[in-house]
């Protein structure tokens, strides 16, 4: 018996759509069960940033983030997707408050997981104080939700990566899935170079950026538990896998994380480059890791990659 | 006020707070007789992986064995900007420190941040902004980003930015701007006993619920955050 066409077509589209290149709305449309997304405070409500006009900058009617509710494999999920093409997906007052409100509801309900599709350079500088505080509120809300039993999963594969305070929120999530393009860091390459000089970090050396901050390195370090190929379908499958794997949060997780991170410093603290870390981890020909196709990399990572499961 | 002045004024009965290359860790006796755990970053030190792991270790050890509130003293640089720190996953180390502080606060160890010097960006998120009540001291100079760097990013002149900074607290550095946002709950006086002010706060700690967005609304610094968060929450709860 063939499946009805309307169920086949979205999966085909999801398989052939680059997560990296898609908009926030397209990512959600194809990640969730077809037609299941219900947005909260959508663009029709025109809840724009109250601060951008000070700088004569264009506003966006959704302030660069879509938050809502949908279904994944039939089960309810809350979702938030940042639009990296609007001001680099940066956190402003309205943008951040939408995610905070979503997480607060998730905490009260307790059983519905939250998927955060990060795509952000961090704080929106034109409203830096409001953005920084929004990130602090989101971190608190993530931890309160997790403490109430909510699974909070970060999906990282957008063009703006996951930088600044976005990287700290990602560090608070129950689990992460990353693609190769899913760079995660606090200071961006240009920020390090501006403050410390090109000898410290050459932001134009793209290979350096990717092997220091990119998804492959984060997967091998154990910062992310799943590596996804760059299609929306791969991220959909990663999200479903992670929802099945995550256990309850508690103090034992924080103790385990302390051990995991302290162990990382002991093992790799003297390494000069990510390639050295991969070599210490036992990757033969570590310098070829950046060129490995996704399927070969996933096989390698499942053999020697570390895990943060039960330790974050 | 210097760090030594601050510690002496906070804890006239003595303290065991050590400053090891800018990383503060120890404990002190409150005037009420109870104990308070103290951690922090001093001397405008950058918060990197090596510093963060020691601070989180100190708090975790205390969660196992101790009781009482936790004080986080802050005079830091921003996060350490280096290839090594980012390669080793600085975002995880800073998040871990914040998580440990938030967990402690939610489980009977109320946290207070005391911003007495500088701080910025990721360092502020992992320390002062991860506490329940963030207090400022006069002269503190937090900055999410300094105006010259902001001028570069926004392509506006320093003069134009300084002019805008007068009319809006939302982007400009400074303690009073963060107070208007709701990030800094109150500013203490440096001319009266800090011990008195600490005891007053501890005797009347606000509930653990995060009310910073409501504070920002009351103070006019963040007109929309509290309402937007509340509306999304209500809509999301209706999906049950």
Observed structural traits:
heterodimer, A: 312 residues, alpha/beta, 2-enoyl-CoA Hydratase, Chain A, domain 1, 7-stranded mixed β-sheet, 12 helices, globular, B: 240 residues, two-stranded parallel ribbon, 11 helices, 45% helix, 21% strand
How does this structure look, described?
The complex is a heterodimer of chains A (312) and B (240). Helix content of chain A is 44%, strand content 11%. By secondary structure, chain A is of the alpha/beta class. Chain A has a domain of 201 residues: 2-enoyl-CoA Hydratase, Chain A, domain 1, CATH 3.90.226. Chain A has a seven-stranded mixed β-sheet, sandwiched between helices. In chain A, helix 3 packs parallel to helix 4 and helix 4 runs parallel beside helix 5. The mean pLDDT of chain A is 95. Chain B is α/β, with parallel strands linked by helices and 240 residues long. In chain B, 45% of the residues lie in helices and 21% in strands. In chain B, the strands form two sheets. A seven-stranded mixed β-sheet of chain B has the order 1-2-3-4-5-7-9, sandwiched between helices. In chain B, strands 6-8 form a two-stranded parallel sheet. The mean pLDDT of chain B is 95. At the A-B interface, helix 3, helix 4, helix 5, helix 6 and helix 8 of A face helix 2, helix 3, helix 4, helix 5 and helix 6 of B.
Strand composition percent of chain B:
15-25%
| Helix-strand pattern of chain A | HHEEEHEHEHEHHHEHHHH
How many E strands of chain A?
Answer: 7
Please state the overall shape of chain B, judged from the principal axes of the Cα atoms: globular
Structural class of chain B: alpha/beta
Count of discrete alpha- or pi-helical segments spanning 4 or more residues of chain A: 12
Averaged pLDDT of chain A: 95
Oligomer: heterodimer
How far is it from the N-terminal to the C-terminal residue of chain B, by CA?
52 Å
* Rg of chain B, alpha carbons: 18 Å
Please estimate the helix content of chain B. 40-55%
- Main β-sheet of chain A: number of strands, strand sense, barrel status? 7 strands, mixed
What is the name of the CATH superfamily of the domain at 10-184 and 224-249 in chain A?
Answer: 2-enoyl-CoA Hydratase, Chain A, domain 1
Task: Give the ordered list of helices and strands of chain B.
Answer: HEEEHEHHEEHEEHHHEHHH
CATH architecture term of the domain at 10-184 and 224-249 in chain A = Alpha-Beta Complex
Question: Biggest interface between protein chains, with counts per chain?
Answer: A-B, 87 and 78 residues
Global geometry of chain A? globular
The CATH topology of the domain at 10-184 and 224-249 in chain A is given as: 2-enoyl-CoA Hydratase, Chain A, domain 1
